[in-house]
Specification:
Elements lengths: L10 E6 L5 H17 L5 E5 L7 H7 L4 E5 L6 H14 L4 E2 L7 H14 L6 E6 L5 H18 L3 E5 L7 H8 L7 E5 L6 H7 L5 E2 L7 H23 L10 H4 L14
Helix pairs in contact: 1-8, 2-3, 4-5, 4-8
């Protein structure tokens, strides 16, 4: 990675979780490339909180000039509220940290396309399958994403979780199958293939859509979070209360269907 950025341009650092999966790393690299393609005049780096390379701490140390960190996480939870602030405070306390990606209508658009590609039919029941969290606000954020998808599809959508959180994916499938729908389709609310997506695939659902993956709408959402963070920092400075090294998520949490409420999603 090159040190230094263009004068007057704020560097974007995309902070993903990380995984022990070459396929997962490939998808995240593809998403980062798509993000860069939308704004070639802005330096955009990809970094990871754990497991994958390069580590966020190293990337933040090497980047000079102003920086905005956008978590490549579908919502908050432990990584956004604990891991990320600890790294920022230690190596780049001047950084501005944006809210997590979702829930957001752009994510709903990607989910809708993935379901269409998977063969969603008009009579199918739909479950939004997420990773899960021990944070109640995290689970609420996934349910908010399910409501957005429900409106888009004009049918009920049940939020369910592959790890911790109720209902679990097996319980949700059992509940939905008591209804009249001939098939149950799971919309994968995950960025890339990995452990949690495998759990969704092996859940016994009739159809499981692909993860969100590399998509122009997802890349656009990253820049939306970047722009919102910069605007929030400017407004905070004007008001004499800079938000540097704080997440904008708390301020945004009441808007767009609680789109920035915390959730542990990778």
């Amino acid at each position: 990675m090159k040190k230094g950025v263009k004068t007057g341009v704020t560097t974007l650092v995309m902070a993903a979780h990380g995984a022990r999966s070459a396929e997962w790393d490939t998808v995240l690299a593809g998403l980062a490339a798509r993000v860069r393609r939308l704004r070639p005049g802005v330096t955009a780096e990809l970094a990871f909180l754990e497991l994958s390379d390069p580590p966020l701490e190293r990337v933040l140390t090497e980047v000079t000039g102003p920086v905005v960190v956008v978590p490549l996480l579908l919502a908050g939870g432990y990584h956004v509220h604990i891991d990320l602030p600890e790294v920022i405070a230690r190596v780049r306390p001047d950084a501005v940290v944006a809210g997590p990606l979702g829930p957001h209508p752009l994510l709903t658009s990607v989910l809708t396309r993935r379901l269409a590609t998977a063969g969603l039919r008009s009579g199918d029941a739909v479950i939004l399958g997420a990773a899960g969290s021990s944070d109640p606000a995290a689970l609420a954020a996934v349910r908010a994403a399910a409501r957005l998808l429900s409106v888009r599809l004009s049918r009920p959508v049940t939020a369910a979780f592959a790890s911790c959180g109720e209902p679990g994916i097996a319980h949700a499938l059992d509940m939905v199958r008591r209804g009249p729908a001939p098939r149950t389709v799971v919309a994968s609310y995950l960025l890339a293939p990995g452990l949690f997506h495998t759990r969704l695939v092996e859940s016994g659902a009739d159809v499981v859509s692909a993860p969100l993956g590399v998509d122009d709408d997802l890349a656009e959402l990253v820049w939306h979070r970047y722009d919102t963070a910069i605007h929030g920092a400017i407004q905070g400075a004007i008001q004499g209360s800079s938000r540097s090294s704080r997440t904008i998520a708390a301020a945004a949490s009441g808007r767009e269907g609680s789109e920035s409420a915390p959730v542990k999603i990778s």
